[in-house]
Amino acid sequence: MKIGELAARTGVSVRSLRYYEQQGLLKPVRDESGYRDYSIFAEEQVRTIQLYLNLGLTTEQIAGFLHCVMKNKEAFCTEVFPIFRQKIAEIDAQINQLNHIKMNLEERMQSILDERQWDEMEE
């Protein structure tokens, strides 16, 4: 199938499909005219890539285990767990940072409210 058909079937832009190819996630063959020709399995592969992108993984991380998960069940791919653990650690760090920012904002808001009340009392 051609790149436009794959894009239509998966809902992924042609530009993204070309990017996946650059990153080594998709490997179409070229026909005599130089056009990309994707196998019937490319649709499932693109959907799998999208699944992992939606989990917040990078194309580089996905490239490290995509071949394995396309051939086997995810549970049998030892490369997956360390990447998932790393992503969870990143998310935990982001949550901590956001909680700290939230706490600082709440303190600033309370400070503003306290100052307003003090000013009202002086009038």
From TrEMBL:
Superkingdom, taxonomy of origin: Bacteria
Entry keyword Cell cycle: no
HTH merR-type domain: residues covered: 1-68
UniProt KW Transcription keyword: yes
Listed SMART domains: HTH_MERR
PROSITE patterns assigned: HTH_MERR_1, HTH_MERR_2
Ranges in a coiled coil: 88-115
Keywords: Coiled coil, DNA-binding, Transcription, Transcription regulation
GO MF annotation terms: DNA binding; DNA-binding transcription factor activity
Gene3D superfamilies, A to Z: 1.10.1660.10
Name this polypeptide is given: MerR family transcriptional regulator
Source species: Paenibacillus lutimineralis
Source species taxonomy: Bacteria, Bacillati, Bacillota, Bacilli, Bacillales
